[in-house]
Amino acid sequence: MALGANRRPDGDDLEIIEPLCAVFRRRLKSEGAKYTPERAEVLDAIVRIEGIFEAEDLLERLQAEGRRVSKATVYRTLKIMQDAGIVQRVLSVGDQARYQLAYGRAGTDQLVRLDGGRVESIEPPGLKALCEQVCAQRGVKYQGHRLQVFATAPERGG
Amino acid sequence: MALGANRRPDGDDLEIIEPLCAVFRRRLKSEGAKYTPERAEVLDAIVRIEGIFEAEDLLERLQAEGRRVSKATVYRTLKIMQDAGIVQRVLSVGDQARYQLAYGRAGTDQLVRLDGGRVESIEPPGLKALCEQVCAQRGVKYQGHRLQVFATAPERGG
DNA sequence: CTTGGTGCAAACATTTTGCAGCACA
DNA sequence: TGTGCTGCAAAATGTTTGCACCAAG
Lengths: 158, 158
Known about the structure:
Chain A is α+β, with helices and mostly antiparallel strands. Chain A has helices at about 15-30, 35-50, 55-65, 70-85, 125-140, and strands at about 55, 85-90, 100, 110-115, 120, 140-150. The termini of chain A are far apart.
């Protein structure tokens, strides 16, 4: 289901879809851009992925679902969404660009399960202060930070 | 100056070059690989860069200095060094893979200048402990972490 | 000598871009 | 109705690989 049309109030993602969609439309309008079905599809897919994804994940997912969205459009939309603050590039462990939903969800800090790929938000106490301190020491202005903590399931027989 | 030959005890990088070179040679030998002049050049360039670099930085630098090392060799050497733990990939802000010396130096945490793109390594005190604590609380095994702190030049008139 | 390494250029994978027709505002 | 958007495929990166000759051990 695309975002703009036929939205029903019973989806469990709606709490996030609704405002996100609005943010996106507002942003698009503010720069004279259009809210097209393709862009809605992309946003919808991103929301449903619920985690970190690559451009190709989106493309595969959309095509597997029979959506008619081209590679070029996925990349173009992703770029717009980055500028709009809807998605953000996250730290990549490997080669490709990876993104995550940046709106409505979470802080910027994550616990990444290396076994399975699940990602959850964390809020380590005092982290922001620590980062601000680093900046203060170097005489630069703190603008933000992002932390990934990597973990695996605890050992059983070890 | 390549690493293996003509080393003199007055260089200020030697304290790091020496053991690194040894580590590299040992590693190469352990897998039946050879210690070639090209590999020495690459290692030398990496040490002299003293920070985060991309493959192309190495290539440019080497070629600007008249070293005869090809792109392919730079990439191949970089891969070997990664496996050997001599360099590590670090978080990329843009598109390309970035590396830094992983031996004797620095961790994975960075201060990213949003104005200009400079990246430098930082070591916020207690960060690792904080991350380990997060893992402990969730009952997972800490495997590592990565932090990026974003900053801009301090305001002057604001 | 043998085995692995090098440079080159072609192959690759990912992301970007030019163009002609199409659809949103 | 006009401007921007789409898909396609070609171009543009950044990285890897095949091959013939060369060098380290």
